[in-house]
TrEMBL record:
(6S)-NADPHX binds at residues 61-65, 124-130, 153, 253, 307, 355, 423. Homotetramer. InterPro entries: CARKD, Nnr, Ribokinase-like, YjeF_N_dom, YjeF_N_dom_sf. AMP binds at residues 392-396, 422. The lineage of its organism: Bacteria, Bacillati, Actinomycetota, Actinomycetes, Kitasatosporales. K(+) binds at residues 62, 120, 156. Its EC number is 4.2.1.136, 5.1.99.6. The keyword Methyltransferase does not apply. This is Bifunctional NAD(P)H-hydrate repair enzyme.
Amino acid sequence: MRRAYSVETVRAAEAALMQRLPEGALMQRAAAGLAAACGDLLRRNGRVYGSRVLLLVGSGDNGGDALLAGARLARRGAGVRALLLAPDRAHPGGLAAFRAAGGQVVDGPDGLGVLDLVVDGITGIGGRGGLREDATELVHAVTRDRTPVISVDLPSGVEADTGEVHGEAVRADATVTFGTYKPGLLIDPAAEHAGALRLVDIGLGPELPEPPDLEALQYADVAALLPVPGAESDKYRRGVVGVVAGSERYPGAAVLAVAGALRGGAGAVRYVGPGADAVIARFPEALVHAGPPSKAGRVQAWVVGPGLGDGRGAEAAVADVLAADVPVLVDADGLRLLDAGAVRTRTAPTVLTPHAGEAAALLGTAREEVESGRLTAVRELAARYRATVLLKGSTTLIAEARDTPVRVNPTGTSWLATAGSGDVLSGLTGSLLAAGLAPRDAASVGAYLHGLAARHGSDGAPVSAQDVADGIPAAWRDVRAG
């Protein structure tokens, strides 16, 4: 599991560790890991000896890390130059080591020639706001030939704690981070600037508290959560999920939500809505009912909202489902039709699955604010509605109303930006709720499998929502195989 901590927590852990280490030892550990990562990239693209490396050095410890790493590369035969953005505030020890190793300090980008690597050590995890104009111009000047960029700890100009980007920021091919991940490395839009991530162990682990601020599940974590039927399982033990979806205008939403539920391992699906004929034609095993949902029969969880539209009875159906004493997932039109007070007073779990536009409507704010501040938005939604919230988008986030780490889904892909994909996710997550997974686990596993399924369905080609549904069993097998 990838775990991320706030700047304040990282600073405190570093201070505690430095009290037990010789002076400068922590920075040397970071520099050694950074130099190794730079060397790996240079070897993949040619060689270390004789390569041409430029360090962009700011005034903080990140600049010191870059200088010490540059010294190590220079001792391996690389031609390393440093451009100091604040010459009078450059890290003294790092600068001395860099010069002693044969590194050269330059005044500007002119005359540098072709570079093999740029190391971004302009700002550190304490930086706020985007890059200053002079730094922006410098970054553009030295990367216009698409020179590979490695950022030190995080790309300069992004917000470490939130993943927000206020202004210009470095776009790195890779980021080498130290001790632990920072939230901004895992959450868009900042994560989009980070490139490939490499975590360097500097001994910080024992100093970091529980729980982390963010966490991202990996294969082993998801495999441990997957509900697998036993020898005595029947359809009720596997979980029966009710699906209230579809309308005359959007009949396909019903089919896709049911597809996600069945592919997600539900023992049975009870469908309620006007799309019964389409559902039965595609899935004869589905159990259909004219409604209301409370009269449809026994279920362990409900999914309500995909494609409901504004037709007669849609709002009543949402209210009926929210009155049930089982876990409920609300998506799409259901989010628009729900009564906030009814959600907040439920005793059974509720999962809300908005995209940015729906989240903005629920919060009474602009979509752009949600997209630029995803972590703030998902936490606010969970607290305001006393629910588990799965905020869909370029980074899918899952938050609870209680004080648990926000989860970040690492399997997202742009191929999921297709009509009906969210309906599949709703059915899939609903099946996991019906199988007995806790709401945060169901949402996290659902998002993880959903992303993998899109990759299986697309195989590098455009993908439809039905492709995503059909890819779920393969994603499930992948996770179980590790």
